[in-house]
Amino acid sequence: MALMIPPVKLKWLEHLNSSWITEDSESIATRDGVSVLYSKLLANKEVVLLPQQVLCLKGPQLPDFERESLSSDEQEHYLDALLSSQLALAKMVCSDSPFAAALRKRVLVLQRIFYALSNKYHDKGKVKQQQHSPESNSGSSDLHSVSERPRSSTDALIEMGVRTGLSLLFALLRQSWMMPPPPGPGGGPGGSINLCNDVIHTAIDVVSSLPPLSLANESKIPPMGLDCLAQVTTFLKGVTMPNSGADILGRRLASELLLGLASQRGSLRYLLEWIEMALAAAAVVSTMEQNKVLQSQEGLIGYDCFMNILIQMRRSLGSTADRSQWREPTRTPDGLCSLYEAALCLFEEVCRMASDYSRTCVSPDSIQTGEAPVVSETCEVYVWGSNSSHQLVEGTQEKILQPKLAASFADAQTIEAGQYCTFVISSDGSVRACGKGSYGRLGLGDSNNQSTLKKLTFEPHRAIKKVSSSKGSDGHTLAFTTEGEVFSWGDGDYGKLGHGNSSTQKYPKLIQGPLQGKVVVCVSAGYRHSAAVSEDGELYTWGEGDFGRLGHGDSNSRNIPTLVKDISNVGEVSCGSSHTIALSKDGRTVWSFGGGDNGKLGHGDTNRVYKPKVVEALQGMFIRKVCAGSQSSLSLTSTGQVYAWGCGACLGCGSSEATALRPKLIEELATTRVVDISIGDSHCLALSHDNEVYAWGNNSMGQCGQGNSTGPITKPKKVVGLDGVAIQQISAGTSHSLAWTALPRDR
């Protein structure tokens, strides 16, 4: 078959990149500019044209239709052969047009510039991941060869140069400090800046000019860069000690540079290492005082330098504490402060941040963990959106356009909003349900709608920890107990209840089979499929297998829980309409599989994926939660940022027609620290650190809580009517929403 694009061989792996890094890439906007750069590729022999396949005008060999009688299958076969031949011819002709030729040149030039920049600045860790990617195939080998470059002799020489250069620099600095101070005014200890201190001072200026947390994402730093940081840190730690041989100013500058690097790396580890260093240096100073050999200005650090870094840390983490409550070191007349006091201030700030952050780490899933669940006598539950099937238990079936306090849910510990139904788990582990009852989705033994909350019966009797109810299809529900057993009920089509058949189940029924003996810690009811995660990190899926949503490598349905063999160490799962998202226990890896239409898998395309595939765009982040909706997906990072992908208003980007093939930060929430997210069929909720609720997406039933049913809401908006209410949990159903908080016992 003819190729769409005449083949070329990329030879630029053998060439240097410096000239392409400085190339004016804007010139590719014009055909003349592209021609000049493309001519450069040919002249340097970085691109070699290969012989083009001869244009074949002869189609497939066809039979004599007048004399031969063909079956319908044979006729279809010959028709497909003719269509394929015509398509190949069309591709060849189109690829040989002037426009296609110009476009091809532009793409090759862009690839060359990207490779030059990538080779110089891109992290090598990602290259290794790409080398082992299962997606590589013969049709894209030329493109993959750009990034799959083995470590060359040039790399080894550069690494050797960097390592020896650092070693030489450290040796020269130590030797310079050992030399007697220069004569003249300002010489001697504490005098004018010498060569050693000038080098460190320059480094401080560079680090302080960087944006906050520039070195925080280590996955974006090449291994050689991380090694250099480690060497510099080790050297500076040694310099800060009073017995290091460095002068007083050198020791002070070294401690300031170390603090700057620690704050830029944004890790508790490096901050604690700096505190340990400062306390160790202060201890040596104290010993020198006792021995009466202490020199003036020993054991100090620049006050302004320390406070600038401390304030920057507070701002980057959104600290709202009153400044009068902050501990600050005492400033000397010379503009310095004690290293010991600075260490205590920084440690106190770390503790405050940890305490502040710990309040955001309580998710709905963890409220009832352990032997003694959190129990409150009452809580305030606010409801809004569709009440067409009495899912809000508010008498009237009119939609509720803004949050309304619902007395019926007052003793709820956690609530699950499903497809026109609602489930309430009380502190004793009992479950009550209301709303639409078709297909037995309420688990009350019939298919009737339920206008008031009614208690479910579990046989054998168990205390329920969490419920997950489908937001679409014909409605089914899963629940797992405090012991880790799983019950299911409702519509049984496609085997999504996991009982080995497709029967409707109107009472909760314990799932046996592969889950028997397993301790389940998470369940999710999708539109036509289900999933569960065991305590040991195993993922099980069952139900409709179309589009590969079960992750078993095929499109076959399963009517019992089946282990997904290609991943492990799973901590959480969320099932959407035709796709599934899984999150690792450590929060470092997100997988997705199933239908990729509208980009809802986040892999940069719309392809179906039949086995779990890592969402590369989220690598390097710590993810706390993932949610799968109808045509979109969400993730919440440990720093409180929300990423969305797929299509529609759920992207929160200001358009209901937008599509994002990869996770994209929701800018409207970028300055808000989000602690929980929930997604319904086509609308989303987010809970902030300040107990405020935001909503966006479909608002046709008032489910976004804006006081109206116009929409959709294309950017996250604060839900009206909840001012002053300390909301702690949220849940989004198909077209209704709930938010609630436990009240103090003495209220």
Quick tags:
single chain, 747 residues, alpha+beta, Methylamine Dehydrogenase, Chain H, 3 domains, four-stranded antiparallel β-sheet, 32 strands, 29% helix, globular, RCC1/BLIP-II
The CATH topology of the largest domain corresponds to: Methylamine Dehydrogenase, Chain H
Q: Which CATH first-tier class of the largest domain would you pick? A: Mainly Beta
CATH architecture of the largest domain: 7 Propeller
- Quaternary structure classification: single chain
Query: What is the number of helices?
Result: 13
Domain count: the total is: 3
Which structural class do the helices and strands define? alpha+beta
Q: What's the rounded overall pLDDT mean?
A: 82
InterPro entries: RCC1-like_dom, RCC1/BLIP-II, Reg_chr_condens, Signaling_Regulatory_Domain
Pfam families: RCC1 (PF00415), WD40_RLD (PF25390)
Keywords: Repeat
Region (Disordered): 125-150
